[in-house]
Amino acid sequence: MSALASVEGGRLWIIAWHYHDDDMAGPDAAVTLEVAGLPRVKGLEHYLIDETHSNAYAEWKRTGSPIAPSRAQYAQLAARGRLATVENPEVQTSSEGVSRLRFRLPRQAVSLFVLDAAAAAGSGR
Question: Beta strands of the chain (E only): which ranges?
């Protein structure tokens, strides 16, 4: 499991991936990300790319790998290619200001988190 982060103002973007050269089934990674230096997290969005989320290629394979998809198949592929939001992970913030995100990341998957410390109170999950 690897991750990169970028911050601007009160927003933090974290991308985490669970990549393996051998493309075979395997266990999810149990991940805890620790974020320090931001005010309390007030907003969070979680996007996922895996076998069943945000993955037009996997959908194309599931539909039989058509060389010339029908209009309906093309529409379905386009819909599956859009970045999908999923349930937010558990977030705990310590009295020292360290926020911990705990989640499971499937093998060969990528998660994108957008944390907003500047959001209006009550908009976070």
Answer: 2-8, 11-18, 29-35, 43-49, 84-85, 90-93, 99-105, 109-116
